[in-house]
Amino acid sequence: MSFSSSLVIVIVVPLSFLSADLMMAEQVSAKGSSKAPNVLIIMADDCTYNDLPLYGGKNAKTPNIDRLAREGLVFDRAYLAEAMCQPCRSELFTGKYPMSNGCSWNHSSSRPGIKSTPHYLKELGYRVGISGKVHVKPASVYPFTKVEGFDPNCVRNPTREHSTDGISRFMSADKNESFCLVVALVEPHVPWVMGDPSEYPPEKIVLPPNIADTKRTREAFSRYLAEITYMDSQVGDILKALDESGEAPNTLVLFTSEQGSQFPGCKWTNWDTGVHTALVARWPGVVDAGKRSDALVQYADILPTLIDLTGSAIPRKDFDGKSFLPILTGKKKTHRRYVYGVHNNLPEGPSYPIRTVSDGSFRYMRNLRSQEIYIEKHLMGWTGKGELNNPYWATWVREASSNINTYELVKRYMNRPAEQLYHTENDPYELNDLARTESFEQIKQELSQELDRWMQSQGDPGSSQDTQEALSAARKGKHLYVPPPR
Q: Residue 132 pairs with which residues in a beta bridge?
């Protein structure tokens, strides 16, 4: 007599024991898709976050971004580490702060051997492309597939007409394969020449309190607002292409405004209007529509989040950021305790290094060469072609002699103390410096110590990083300063 037998072992795991990654993978499967979710990242260029109606802006018309916000989750406290195009994009694509990835100056280069979004997501089966402005290098660190259709040149006058044909083909190329597509727009970067400024009569504009009220400034702000509305129309066209591809139900859409605009106190600074960015996330069936989050998040967190949403393990030692997927899915309300920022002024002007830390309520800033005056050559007039780029700045200087408010704004921009402290929650334009107010001394010391800790963890040498020697080395891929091992 012979027989065969089989041993079947059944392991029952309580739901509470499932990892967040496995639960997300199960959730995606439950939506009826056999593949990981697609990702569409739409980036504006040099758009101050609170000039958007979504964040209280009083002028711009942005119906498409507003609709996206109604359909998704709005982050009220999203930040980037350095308010310049190349460093912030490098942070976004690598999950590393500027010091870690090597791109600590504009027009520099990341460290050889660093991995970025294409490396990580291609390993997970994604097609990874970019259309529009790239502005990161070297190509070996950022091996995106180039997708035609959007102008890559942010200073062209006028911007080339866009077409969604290329991104439509990319999104629909293989229905069995997930895609990650970045559409990096070039508005509202200067020159402000796109859109219809007649929609924004200069005399009717409500200027933010950190912008001096001069005739030239109002005219420039009108053109800037027109470009925001033009940018919004591009967002609408991109979302329409996604809808027509049939992939919208299984796509996480992220819209972000990059750093602040080229007005004093925004781009090229560590003030909130420089490093605070718009961030909207829409993911049908996963992200609750019409909600807002005050969780602190940073550009370095986005790549780990994209890896996390696939259900894959995150190589945490590779990143400065961490996944905020639990915020997207509503499982958590808080994410970070602090966000961090840096500024190295070369090659945009004379050396003027700045560092900052914020807990979302208070911001502490340290100007490492406060004995110098601050100069940013593009904003203050020079284009490199002997032309005035932003002619309104001269009107600020002229009117400072007769208008105390304008004088204070010029002084704030050019002559900064060694330390600054702002209660950003109550003072969103950070006009009231509390650094020498005794009742805020403890908060200042706590944030100062946290900034010291962060700089040390990054191997940040401070002032000596913003030197021509360090910049020249970085441009050649031979970085002088290396973060300590984890």
A: 184
Report if residue 2 sits inside a domain. Answer: no
List all residues 6 or more positions away from 78 whose beta carbon is below 8 Å from its beta carbon: 49, 256, 276, 277, 278, 279, 297, 298
Provide mean pLDDT across the span 360-370: 98
Range of the domain at 427: 342-475
CATH number at residue 30: 3.40.720.10
Beta carbons of 193 and 182 less than 8 angstroms apart:
no
pTM value? 0.93
Average predicted confidence (pLDDT) for the chain: 92
- The rounded distance, in Å, linking the Cα atoms of 270 and 144 is 29
Q: What one-letter code names the amino acid at 115?
A: K
Q: Which of 92, 70, 94 is nearest to 81 (CA)?
A: 92
Instruction: Tell me, yes or no, whether 35 and 143 share the same domain.
Output: yes
Boundary (domain end) residue, out of 313, 336, 359: 336
**Which DSSP string do the residues of 298-365 spell out, in sequence order?**
EGGGHHHHHHHTTTPPP-GGG-SS---HHHHTTS-S---S-EEEEE--TTTSS---EEEEE-SS-EEE
Average pLDDT, integer, range 272-300:
98
